[in-house]
Specification:
Blueprint: H1 9-24, E1 34-40, E2 45-50, H2 58-64, H3 70-89, E3 93-94, E4 103-105, E5 111-113, E6 120-121, H4 141-144, H5 152-167, H6 178-183, H7 188-193, H8 206-215, H9 226-229, H10 233-236, H11 245-252, H12 255-274, H13 278-281, E7 293-296, E8 299-302, H14 304-319, E9 326-339, E10 343-355, E11 359-363, H15 373-376, H16 380-383, E12 386-396, E13 403-413
Parallel strand pairs: 7-13, 9-11
Antiparallel strand pairs: 1-2, 3-6, 4-5, 7-8, 9-10, 10-12, 12-13
Helix pairs in contact: 3-5, 5-8
């Protein structure tokens, strides 16, 4: 994410809201975890480190499966309601953009709410918002009418998201959906006076239909709170623990592709930090724990502090005496394979060239937004000053969604 003096005030405020919400929220069930943020003065870039959610969003699930079974949805929504209850009851925040794309789930079956960039803080449980932001198609009637609104607006959006996930269809079509309701004044009558959408009673359980109906009550004052919905029969129906969310998510996604995505992400972040400015370099310590090892030049470093010292010395040697130009990594090839039950082994090889940023090329990392040699028209052979080979063993940490480097081997070839 990037802030500059030319960015509109609203966008800057959204980013500040995101950082503030994440920083102040403790580890809470149903909310994505925040690991830190740092600012790069030279570029004006702000980077936010969030929990890695390897299963993607419920929108991703729907792209692969037409719908999500009721028992699975019940368990997912229960955990998400805990997060929403915390946002409303403890933090006094209206999320304002609840939708399948902002409801994430990892391969361990933990659903999380994310994207707090347009959340609004209220001073009390009876305060109201008056701004018009969020994804239009999931907005509640009071928001579409441009009235003041509060926490019930999130409950309406949750009901629409659940309707879509359970039935496989969004209840409002392009002809009568909220977008056109805003554009055509006559269509406001539809959202105000026509019955709210409801799942087919012949295809879905009474508990599921009742939950949707409760969320999609037109009168915001009558809608139940997130805390009240935790006691709804649809949530209690599957509390016996027989639903395996992890097995459901893992059955959907290609484990090999997820492993490749993880390898790409880790590789990009490691070399961006290594070849980046000095003020970011200390963040590399978070990639290791006290049992991690680094092998380089027939010497073994153990633990995050010792590894950081060794890598810092290597980094200073590569930087040389002529900044900003220095030796930087060019990833030319990346391979990965499974390591144990949940880990991944990553092998990277490439070249050193004189430059000022990490680059990718050939069969290396495929990362959107990263510079590529095909675009820069750089002849690697003529620019190459040395080669490197590096292997990482990544393993999951004690916190869900966090990985650390347990073993690293580095070879530099002149």
């Amino acid at each position: 994410m990037y802030i500059s003096p030319f960015v509109v005030k609203e966008k800057r405020q959204q980013l500040l809201n995101e950082i503030r919400t994440l920083c102040e929220a403790p580890c809470c069930e149903g909310l994505v975890e925040f690991h830190g943020a740092f600012y790069t003065p030279d570029s004006g870039q702000i980077s936010i480190a969030l929990e890695y959610i390897d299963g993607g969003s419920l929108a991703d699930v729907l792209r692969l499966r037409k719908h999500i079974p009721e028992p699975v949805l019940s368990c997912m929504i229960k955990k998400l309601l805990h997060g929403l209850s915390y946002l409303h009851g403890v933090r006094h925040l209206v999320h304002r953009d609840i939708k399948p794309a902002n409801l994430l789930i990892n391969l361990k079956g933990e659903p999380k709410i994310t994207d707090f960039g347009i959340s609004a803080g209220l001073e009390s449980s009876v305060a109201m918002c008056a701004t018009f932001v969020g994804t239009v198609t999931y907005m509640s009637p009071e928001r579409i009418r441009n009235e003041t609104y509060s926490y019930p607006a999130d409950i309406w959006s949750l009901g629409l998201a659940l309707f879509e996930c359970g039935t496989g269809e969004f209840p409002y079509t392009a002809n009568n959906g909220p977008v056109n309701l805003m554009l055509q004044a006559s269509s406001f009558l539809f959202i105000l006076y026509d019955p709210s959408p409801s799942p087919s009673k012949s295809l879905f359980s009474p508990e599921f239909c009742s939950f949707i109906d409760a969320c999609l009550v037109k009168d915001a004052n009558v809608r139940p709170t997130a805390e009240q919905l935790l006691s709804h029969p649809f949530i209690r129906k599957y509390e016996d623990g027989r639903v395996d969310l992890a097995a459901f998510v893992q059955s959907i996604f290609d484990r090999t592709q997820r492993m490749k995505d993880l390898a790409d992400m880790i590789t990009i972040h490691y070399y961006l930090i290594f070849d980046g400015p000095d003020e970011l370099w200390h963040h590399s310590k978070a990639l290791y724990n006290e049992d991690s090892t680094l092998s380089f030049s027939e010497k073994l470093s153990v633990g995050s502090s010792e590894i950081f010292t060794t890598l810092s010395n290597i980094r200073r040697t590569l930087a040389g005496d002529w900044p900003p130009e220095r030796l930087v990594h060019v990833v030319e090839k990346l391979q990965c394979r499974a390591h144990g039950s949940d880990g991944v082994a990553i092998r990277v090889s490439g070249s050193f060239i004189m430059g000022n940023q990490f680059l990718i090329c050939g069969d290396g990392v495929q990362a959107e937004g990263m510079p590529h040699f095909q675009d820069l028209s750089i002849d690697i052979t003529s620019k190459r000053i040395g080669k490197f080979q590096e292997q990482f063993i990544m393993e999951p940490g004690s916190v869900i969604g966090r990985y650390f480097i347990s073993k690293q081997e580095l070879y530099i070839i002149q």
